[in-house]
Design a protein that fits this description.
Layout: E1 9-10, E2 16-18, E3 21-24, H1 28-37, E4 43-46, E5 63-64, H2 73-83, H3 90-109, E6 116-117, E7 120-121, E8 123-124, E9 134-135, H4 142-156, E10 160-163, E11 167-173, E12 179-185, E13 191-195, E14 198-201, H5 222-229, E15 234-235, E16 240-247, H6 259-263, E17 267-269, H7 289-302, E18 308-311, H8 317-323, H9 325-333, E19 343-352, E20 355-357, E21 369-371, E22 376-377, H10 389-405, E23 418-419, H11 431-445, H12 452-463, H13 476-497, H14 515-518, E24 520-525, E25 529-534
Parallel strand pairs: 2-13, 3-4, 3-14, 4-10, 14-21, 20-22
Antiparallel strand pairs: 1-23, 5-9, 6-7, 8-9, 11-12, 12-13, 15-20, 15-24, 16-19, 17-18, 18-19, 24-25
Helix pairs in contact: 1-4, 1-10, 2-3, 3-10, 5-13, 11-12, 11-13, 12-13
Amino acid sequence: MTPRYLIDFDSDLLPRYTTDVIIIGAGIAGLYAAIKASERNRVLIVTKKSLYDSNTRFAQGGIAAVISEDDSPEYHRQDTLAAGAGLCAKAAVDVLVHEGPAGVQELIRLGTQFDQEGGALALTKEGAHSQRRILHANGDATGAEIVRALAEQTLRSPNIEVWDEHYAVDLITDDEGVCHGAIVMRPDGGLVLVNGKATVLCTGGAGQLYRYTTNPDIATGDGIAIAYRAGAHVRDLEFIQFHPTALVYPGAPRFLISEAVRGEGAVLRNIRGERFMERYHPQLELAPRDVVARAIVSEIEQTNSTFVYLDITHESPDWIKQRFPTIYETCLRYGLDMTSDWIPVAPAAHYMMGGIQTDLRGETSVRRLFACGEASSTGVHGANRLASNSLSEAIVFGKRIVDRINELDAPKPLPRIRVREGRKEHSQQAIIERRLKLQKVMLRHVGLKRTRSGLEKGNEELRRQLPVLTTLLAKREEFEFANLLTCALLTTQSAMIREESRGAHYREDFPQRNDELWCRHIVHHRTAGILEGSVDE
């Protein structure tokens, strides 16, 4: 069993800091929740890098909300449910589609400058959306613009304190399952106990489970793992979305080529130059992401290549540069001109549909512990996230979390906790080597296409690393590896259990969706083990 805490400590011997609301993480979810909470509370943001380092900053396509008169919440609801492949919580989807437009207006009020056309908000379309409802900023830099606006608001607030370069190691809970705060490691390696009436995990996803990912290095599944250790339910971890189009080019990172490029008419071609999506789905390049990603992998295998091409050269160069300035300039840096060159792309790990299970107010099964953004499992995304719903979800549920927090009374005193496990030094194998090995196991056995034999082999290889969880850990990269290992095992075990193909989870040995047996959630709990949940819980 995973240990309750990753370190030995005596709470009476550590310094303490008390506030009202503790927010761990600083993407759109953390920044927005902090701003809303600061209206009535003292807020502490704990971020392991800075306010400007998060997955949100890399979000290109935009934020989905019903803005156009031609659109409606019902259309948005239908699209979301269809993409979610039968596992969305309908009540959560209803919340998203009805409260999303007000959330966008709040972002604008807070200083976000979305692109406009003819004096109105510019809207584009992305895969599996039936309407144009994607707002964007600076063409293809929506996330960066939202982070800029929210970070500026955060730094202006007298009620928000920010701890950069601090790392949340674990949560503090009492015997009744109530969260009282977190153990935080300072930049110098010292520990401090942070006490608050509410703790909000906004730690993002776990793209670093895979060798190839669009996520930054910090996406190591920290929130999911520390919530799991604290007794929270985590669910749907088998559903990991691989973005179909990440740049594949010598010397370049797996840079995301936004779905909006396909939304604006780009086509996919194999290395023979042939368009191929008509063989896989009637929506062609705008089919759901899991379909497009697997189609690309099939073409790569059939043509014995390592990539396919994305082609938008039929559009005018000036329009491409104006609509996709970030992608254009990044490709140019590596010698690719997207106005005249086909862009070599392949799938890369992008987004976790699952996470820490919450109710409609963002609260987990551990009282006073909340989760928001990619770390959470609100039920909105089901088995496959609809493009650009993630930023909307963070805003909508961030506000709901703060409404719930405002009902809570003052922080309770921290309980006395002494952990003495007698941990031993771990082997000298470098953590970076362990991390690379884990990523290779996940890519090989728990990637886009899965089989029982592969999953069993992956599970066996991952379990050999388990002793590291009970050794002396002291550095951030060691804690990150422990969290990645926890998430990797939970993901692999969930994928082994689900003997069907649904959304982003594809089993070659069970290629069909099976609603009779598998229209349900797989839920993990540290002490209770593997549980099941109904779709509309």
